[in-house]
C-alpha cells in the first residue's frame, strides 16, 4: 500500500508508521511507533455475501463455506494474533456484516490490543449497525465502490448497490466512524475513477484506496479486462495529478495505491518529472522504508475455514491452518520453502526483475500475478509498466544518484 | 511413567472455502523425512502436484498430495475449546437476506458528477479488493 498523498503532498496519516516507518515525522497519532515486524492480517470471516462482484478474490457467494470459524474460534484466533503482535486485523469476507457476531469479534480485537478495521460492500451498513460497530471499537470502515452507479452495479452484480453503498458510507460518517473508499481498477471502470472521487468527496469521504487487479478468485477469471501496462501507467499518472489538484485546492484527500509496486518506481519518476529531483529523492527514501510488495511478510490472510494465506488474494495456497497450529507458529516457520523463498526473493527474482534498478522498492510486484502469467512465483509481474530506461536506472534514478541509489544495495 | 498425550479429533471438518484442497508433503532427498508444506486448491491430484511443483517442490524427490477432506487430524490442542459449538455463519445463512439493504436511511445526498467539497477522516492498515 503506497500513499500517493503522503509522498506527493506530505499528507500525514496515522498509518504512516506502518507504511513508511515514518511515525517520527508525523503529527498524527500513530497506529504504531515501532517498525512493523508483524503482518497486518485480513480475516475473511465468511464466504457469504449479498452481492456477486466480478473481481472478488474470495469468490464469495450467497452460501457461506461449510465449517467456517465459529465465534469462539474467532476469539481464540484474535487472542493468537494479539499474542503474536499483529498490529491490525481487517475483518473482511464475503461480506462480514452478514455475521451477526461481528460486533462481538470487533470488540474482542479492540480489547486485545489489535486494531479492528472493516472491509465491506457497505450495502448492509445502517446507522444503527455503524454505531454498534463504532461502540465495539471499530476504527475504520473501507467501503467498496467500483464506479459510478451504472458501472458499479454491473460490476457488483446488483442494481441499487451503488446507492446502498453510499447510504452505508453516510451512515458511518453520521456516527463518526472513519470511512473510506476501496476501488478496484479495470477496463470496466477506469473512466469513472475521477467521477467517483468527486462524488464521494461531496459525501464527506476523504480517503480513497485504489487497487490494481490481482489474479485470485474471480479476479483471475477477468484478467483479460485488466488494464494494459500502458493504460495502468496513465491511470496512475491521472491519480497523481488528481491528488495534487485536490491538495492545491485545499482539499487534503488521502489517496493510496494497492497491489502493484511498479507504482513505487513510477511515483519516483513522476515526482522527478513534475516536482523535481529533490522530491523524487525524498520519495525514494520513504519507499525504501515501505519495503515493497508485502506478500508473505507484512500482510497475511486467514480464510473462513482457518487457512492462512500469503496475501488475501492468493487463496490457492496455504502454509497452514489456524485450527492446527497458531498463526504465529505458521507464519514464523521458515522451513516452509515458499515462505522462506519469498522472504529472500531479491535473490530469486528472474527476467527483467532480476536487474531492475527499482528492485529494492518494488521487490518484483505481485508474485501471484507472476504465478498466474508464467507458472513461476519468481517470474516478472506482467503488470509492471515501467519503461526499459526506468528499470535500467537511466531515468530518475540517474539524477537522484549517489545516496539514494546506493541505499538500495 | 510418562503420561500419554491426550489428543482429540476435534479439528476435523471441511478445510476449504474454495473447492477441493490437497495437503502437500515433500521429501527433498531420499534420506529426508516427508515434510508437510501446506495445502493447495486443485480439482485433481495431478493438478495439485502441478501446482505444488510450481510453488515449492522445485527439486524435491517426492511429492505426496492427500485430499484435505480425507485427512483425519488428532491433536492435543484445539483453536478453541468450544470449537464447533457455535457454528459461526456456516452455510446455514438466511436465504432471505436482502441483497441490498432497503432500510429507509434516505437516498445518497449527492448525484453523479458532483464537485469537490467537504471533508472527513481516515485510516486502516490493510487492504482487500473484493
Automatic annotation (TrEMBL), chain A:
Species per Swiss-Prot/TrEMBL record: Halorubrum salipaludis
Keyword field contains Nucleus: no
Highest taxon, organism lineage: Archaea
Claim: 4Fe-4S is one of the keywords in the record: yes
Protein name: Radical SAM/SPASM domain-containing protein
Keywords carried by this UniProt record: 4Fe-4S, Iron, Iron-sulfur, Metal-binding, S-adenosyl-L-methionine
Lineage summary: Archaea, Methanobacteriati, Methanobacteriota, Stenosarchaea group, Halobacteria
Annotated Radical SAM core domain residues: 35-252
UniProt GO molecular function: 4 iron, 4 sulfur cluster binding; catalytic activity; metal ion binding
Biological process (GO), any one: heme biosynthetic process
Coiled-coil ranges (or none): none
Cofactor(s) needed for function: [4Fe-4S] cluster
SMART domains, A to Z: Elp3
Automatic annotation (TrEMBL), chain B:
Region Disordered: start-end pairs: 1-22, 75-130
Bias type Acidic residues, positions: 121-130
InterPro entries, A to Z: CHP04031_Htur1727, PaaB_sf
Protein name: RSAM-partnered protein
Native species: Halorubrum salipaludis
